[in-house]
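Title: Prediction job returns without error message
Component: structure pipeline
Severity: low
Priority: P3
Assignee: unassigned

Description:
Job completed but the reporter wants confirmation the result is attached to the right record. Sequence as submitted:
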Amino acid sequence: MTRIRLRGRLRYWFDSTMDRGTPALIGWLGLASVVLIAVVTVLVVAFTDEDTEANGGWAGVAWMSMLRTLDPGTMGGDKGAPLFLVLMLTATIGGIFIVSALIGVLTTGLDHRIQQLRKGRSQLLERGHTIVLGWSEQVFTVVAELVEANQSERRSCVVILADVDKVDMDEQIRLHVPDTGRTHVICRSGSPLKRADLELVSPDEAKAVLVLPPVGDDRDTQVIKVLLLLNNRTWTGPRPPVVAAVQESDNLAVARIAAGDGGLVIDADDFAVRLVAQSHRQSGLSAVCDELLSFIGNEFYIRHEPSLAGLTYGEALDRYALGIPAGLRGPDGTVLVNPPMDTVIGPADDVILIAEDDIFIRLADPGGTPPPVIASAIVSVPGTPPAPDRTLLVGWNSRAPKIVALLDQLACPGSVVDVAAPARPDEGLTAPYEHLTMGYQYCDPTSRKALESLDLGGYRHIVVLADESVDPGLADDRTLVTLLHLRDIEVGLGDPYSIVTEMNIDSNREVAQVTKADDFIVSTKLTCLLLTQLAENPDLHAVFADLFDPAGSEIYLKPAPRYLRPGAEANFTTVVAAARLRGETAIGYRLSHEGDRPPSYGVHLNPPKATPLTLHEGDHVIVLAEN
């Protein structure tokens, strides 16, 4: 009974060691090799004295046994007594089994390790990296922007953690972002909703954490849970900025509570609504936002300039040789975009500027000659006040009621908004509006006959909304058909209206350029650009919050004849002076004849101040203004 128990214990101990994986198997095979070599050596030394002496004693025999165990081919030239040859053959046969088993174990272990690496489950050892949690089509925009932002860095790292196969993620990144420059993109496979998987990407050493909404109906729920995990985590050092977006405005307050004090959460739905509502009357706004939010071209910077203390904001507009002031930030963090021109800059105030890069921000030489203001080109007569207009919404989706409500705030009394959709909306038509009159007409947006029956010539603006009842790609295809019909009808009518449309996928925008629509709103891309900007510089959150708040100054594209006489030779310094007279900050202009040319679509931000400039009818000046 005791013998059986001992055998069972030994068997259990042996099985336990085998469970430890490849290292344990290699250890057992090594032990078997040592035992085989020792047994053969002892037998040769004990029974074959002549062969032992002929081969250098017991040490030589041990060496021969080891060679024949590890390399069976070495016994081909052996000579000696029959017993010696039999023992060497025994070592060789035993070696065949041991080496074969060792090769199999090594192959299996190596294959297992490769599979583990392919799964992306190894611990990350990086510092100062940017973590992207989640996987969707927007991840390629985020990675491309981070690569662009880190071009001046000697070495940077972006780490993506998503519940997707690592090999698939690597292939997709290489396909969509083939040139990552000095930025190392690392993918790890795991769920951002699991604390153990979050630890794989070393969040304690990260520079910033960016949470992307996943694909599915419960996107906000998953984002909120990730924010909770990050907020409740015990950080070994300063917590990096955490940036996220929610798709439903109702979830914004909850998401901000989940994110905590160190989190920045933006309302993607509200952001998209504001872009559509503001773009419908000023085509080209999305192109301006695209450049300001991306790291290609011009973006916002915050600089402290003690030499400007005591000057007014209006005077500071002329004090930069490179870069354009856009606002001020007080010592308490309060941000004012386009403050009153007589605002005095304090010694602790920072200047918010628009520039191509922070190295391209430079004050003008105090002893130099500033670019002249050509007063004769400035128009002193104020522009005509806005008049009531008619807007047509083609289609209906979940953002439409908010768009109409915001249009009511921006429109003049007596304006009309008609909805043309396959089904009458349940909400939005009967709500009490202060400035708008709502109407509804049945229409299949892809039907030419249905569109022609709407009397399109009576509208000044047409907004095509994305269809949320179908796949985003199919919705863009239907939008493209609608745009082609609208543009062809407009040609026959003589260009009476502007067209602004929502797009779901940015790559479809280039295809849709053939329709020559006035503006395309790809809100998902712009949201990702905003998230990336905040991940790189959280201080800009207050700037963007003030910029996109209707209560303050916003971006407007206003007709150039309100500032300069059409065809008059001037420069951008003159444009800045003309806008300053109206309490506005000019940051660029848009040329109408370049409106359909990517990538800028006619937008020129932060242009050289002294270069000759002539604006014509149809061109626009881009300004920061309250209305």
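Comment from assignee: result matches the submitted record. The mean pLDDT is 84.
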